[in-house]
Design a protein that fits this description.
The protein has twelve helices and three strands. It is an all-alpha fold.
Amino acid sequence: MESSLRCKKLIRGCGLELTEGRLPTLHTSTALFRFKLGEAIRGDAEILELLGNFVEELLSDHDNISLYLDPVVLATGEDNSDNSPSSSGLAHFGSGQSESLVRLMLGVDALQPRIISILLEKFPEFIGNERAQGSAGTTQPSVKILRQLRWLDYVIDSAGLTEKLIETLGYVTPEMQSEIISALPDIISDSDSTGVSVVLAGMMDETPALMLPILEALG
């Protein structure tokens, strides 16, 4: 409990407010939040470990996991009379597309490997259980987890991430196989594309139903 409060205080000080049962609120720019958080944990192995554990704890709550996978709320034009983390020069962040809490964390170099590891561990927990639990029109948590990894500016361990996703293709449902295959071009680096192409070509021979997403991914 004490470590969670410490992490919340640190994150709030960097500009992101966490409220139980609600989407987080970002009181600053995405770039400034990531910079402040990166500076706050630089060279501090203890707080880095605590933050990783904190994010893992948040994502362990299956009922509320979407709060941390959906875009955060962007604060707009508030004053500082309530000691909010925004500053006088930072207002009107209500325009544009915001990132999720997880995406914000993925943009911090020191945190990225741990956050990716957590996402890949959580991913299989939802596969096979979502059809009965989800309501019509609701994006499944597993798909939301996968989307966190798309279009990142960079991936520190791209080869490791690619290997894990290819491994995941071996045990997920056909629907999720299609989702992963479609996402691969937006996740993997150019250096990993040749090996992935070989794997996908083999899958196309074994599973004709996946031919369309595979051809699109290879294209």
